[in-house]
Inverse folding.
C-alpha cells in the first residue's frame, strides 16, 4: 500500500513536472491535473461535511423545539387486549413478536383513538404516553438531543463517504482512460517507427 502510494506520488510529480521529458505526453499532464483537482475536492470535503453536519444539527434542533412547542404528551388507555401483528409461526424469535392494541385519550370532552404497538403482556386499562398536536391527533414525539446528534453525525459521514468514493472512482477512471490513450499513442508511434518513420517524442 505504501509502495503504491509512493509510486502514485512519483507519477504525479513527473506528470506535472516543468522539465522536458520525452516520455511525457499531454494526456499525462491532463490526467495529473484532474487527479490533483479531485484530491483537493476530497480534502475540502472533510471540513465541508463537518459544516454540513453542524448545520443539519442546528436545523433538526430547531425543528424539535418547534415540535415541542406545538405538541404535548397525554396519557392514553388501552381499550382492547393486545393482538399479535406478526404470527408466531412467522416470528424468528420472541423478540420479533409484535403486539398492537387500540388506545384512547381525550382532549377536553372529545375522545380520540388509534392502534399502537404495545407490550404483549399489556391488559385493557393499562396506560401509556402518546404525543398529540393542538387538534388532539397523535403525532411523533419531538426528537431527543441524542437522536438529533446521531442523525447529524450519520448524515455528515454519509456525505463524506459519497464524495470520497466519487473522487476515488473519478481518479481511477481518469487515469485508466489516460493510460489507454497513452498505450494507443505508443502503439501508433511504434508502428510508425517500424515503417521507417522517426520518433516524434510526443
Amino acid at each position: 500500500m505504501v509502495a503504491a502510494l509512493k509510486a502514485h506520488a512519483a507519477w504525479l510529480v513527473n506528470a506535472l513536472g516543468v522539465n522536458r521529458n520525452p516520455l511525457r505526453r499531454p494526456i499525462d499532464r491532463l490526467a495529473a491535473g484532474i487527479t490533483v483537482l479531485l484530491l483537493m475536492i476530497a480534502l475540502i470535503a472533510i471540513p465541508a461535511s463537518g459544516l454540513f453536519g453542524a448545520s443539519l444539527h442546528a436545523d433538526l434542533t430547531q425543528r424539535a423545539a418547534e415540535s415541542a412547542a406545538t405538541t404535548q404528551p397525554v396519557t392514553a388507555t388501552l381499550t382492547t387486549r393486545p393482538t399479535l401483528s406478526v404470527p408466531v409461526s412467522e416470528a424468528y424469535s420472541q423478540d420479533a413478536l409484535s403486539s398492537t392494541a387500540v388506545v384512547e385519550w381525550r382532549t377536553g370532552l372529545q375522545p380520540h383513538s388509534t392502534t399502537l404497538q404495545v407490550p404483549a403482556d399489556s391488559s385493557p386499562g393499562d396506560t401509556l404516553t402518546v404525543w398529540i398536536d393542538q387538534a388532539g391527533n397523535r403525532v411523533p414525539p419531538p426528537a431527543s438531543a441524542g437522536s438529533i446528534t446521531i442523525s447529524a453525525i450519520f448524515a455528515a459521514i454519509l456525505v463524506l463517504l459519497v464524495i470520497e468514493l466519487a473522487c476515488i472512482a473519478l481518479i481511477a477512471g481518469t487515469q485508466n482512460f489516460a493510460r489507454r490513450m497513452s498505450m494507443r499513442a505508443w502503439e501508433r508511434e511504434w508502428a510508425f517507427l517500424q515503417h521507417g518513420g522517426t520518433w516524434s517524442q510526443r
Remarks:
- Strands lie at 72-78, 83-84, 99-107, 110-118, 127-132, 138-139.
